[in-house]
Every structure is written in C-alpha cells, then in structure tokens.
Design goal:
This protein has helices at residues 2-8, 19-33, 46-57, 77-86, 99-106, 108-113, 125-129, 138-142, 146-153, 158-174; strands at residues 36-41, 62-66, 90-94, 118-121. The protein is of the alpha/beta class and 180 residues long. The chain has a four-stranded parallel beta sheet with strand order 2-1-3-4, with helices on both faces.
C-alpha cells in the first residue's frame, strides 16, 4: 500500500521491506558493528526463541530478550533493570501495530538513556522468526499479497487488513491533493 501511495503522489520508494527481513538484516549489521540487540514483546517465550535464532544466524550478535509475559502498557521494573544492564543499541518491539509504536514514542527519552539508538516496532515478525507462524510463500510476497496469506492463517486480522488494503487506498485516492 505504501509503495502504491508513494507512486500515486509522485514519490519513489525502492521496495517493500518486511519486518521479518529487517530484523535479520539489522541483526547482521549489529553483529558486525559489535553492538547488542534487545527483544521485547510477542507471545510468551517467542522473544527468547527469536534472540536464540538471531544469535545463531548473525554470528557474534549479542542479543537478549525480555521474556516475562506482560502487556504493552505495562513496564515491569525488571524490564528497565535488564535494559540498564544490557544497554542495547538496537531494540525490537513486538506488541503489535500501533501499540508498539505508541510504547516506543512514550519511552523514547528513557530508552535513549539506556543506550537504545534504534527502536523498531516489528509487529508479527517474532511469530514468524520463532517458527510459530509460517511465512507467506515467495510468490505471494513478490506480488504484494502477503496480507492474503495472513488472513488465511489468522482470520481475526481481517478488520486490520481491510483498513490497510481498502480504507487506506481510498483515503489516498480521495485526499491525493493533500499529500505534499
């Protein structure tokens, strides 16, 4: 949707980058640069499984996960104690769309104070990286239809996908003059 909207407004975005791919790519860079990564969110235990996988795939990556089951609005004291100890440069947050971005924005200054330079909301990437959810087949990803796969696997996501695939494009068409 963003690529299409950019084209409609005369802008250029080179390609879609899925959160799953971005987590892997940034982890590789972090390993090469010698900085640590921290993972928080996702279903119970998934952040830990993803951290294990990233350490295996990005040799030399220092990655830790906060695995205490909690909600996006909660900040257990032990979370901040762990962040203080680890002082990660890179933070992956998987609380789901909107919640993760709001969580990061509300804690931006505090995150910077514990060394976080990049905080990224990664949505359902932990589900795929932990092996709990299969990734869409390549042909669907290549044609921008990963959302169709997600509806098939998780029908409860339909309202969100309708907003992204129908409502958003309608807004772009109706308000195209408003885009600078």
């Amino acid at each position: 949707g963003l690529l299409w909207a950019a084209r409609r407004s005369g802008r250029f975005l080179p390609e879609r980058v899925a959160g799953v791919d971005l987590v892997g790519d940034l982890s590789t860079v972090a390993a090469r640069e010698g900085v640590s990564a921290f993972l928080v969110g996702g279903a119970a235990g998934r952040a830990g499984r993803v951290a294990d996988r990233l350490r295996r795939e990005a040799r030399g990556l220092k990655a830790e996960a906060f695995t205490l089951d909690h909600r996006a609005g909660e900040d257990p004291k032990s979370l901040w104690e762990t962040l203080e100890r680890v002082r990660p440069a890179l933070l992956f947050v998987a609380y789901g769309p909107r919640k993760q971005e709001l969580w990061i924005a509300a804690r931006n200054v505090r995150l910077a104070s514990v060394g976080v330079r990049v905080a990224l909301g990664v949505g359902g990437a932990f589900d795929i990286l932990a092996g709990s959810l299969p990734r869409a087949p390549r042909i669907l990803r290549d044609h921008g239809l990963e959302w169709l796969w997600r509806v098939f696997l998780e029908p409860e996501r339909l309202p969100r996908i309708v907003r992204a695939t129908i409502v958003f494009p309608l807004h772009v068409l109706l308000h195209r003059d408003a885009v600078p």
